[in-house]
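Hi everyone,

Forwarding the result from last night's run.
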Amino acid sequence: MTIQPMTCDGAGEVVDTRGAVIHRDDDGTIVIRVKHVDMTAEVMRDVLAGRFSFGRVKAKVLIDTRAVRSMTREAQELTAADDVLPYTGCIALVVANSLSVVLANFYLLFVRPRFPTRMFRTEEAAREWLRTIEIEQV
């Protein structure tokens, strides 16, 4: 699978896809705020294209899943695919309700991401953890 990035200038820029609003913080963290959508593989490809609009550079990723309605297994698997893996240093998943917790647990159990991944109830806790992670560039 090859994902073509959308066009974006970098930090401070916001990319609005069908499935999420994405931006890069000043520290390089990619922040993905999932919309109230059913996350299918097609929608996930769009989100990943938005993520890669900030460059194919290994980054810490914060994903706010609190609004997601559902997520297919294929969509979950795309997040850990071979062409995404080199550019993901770690993922902090922000969850709020029982649905987002269940989806995050399924992701961790079945996809088994090959990078540090943790679930948090607050964005502040997620950001605190991300600050402790050192990643090496590809």
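Residues 89 and 135 are 6 Å apart (CA to CA).

Cheers,
N.
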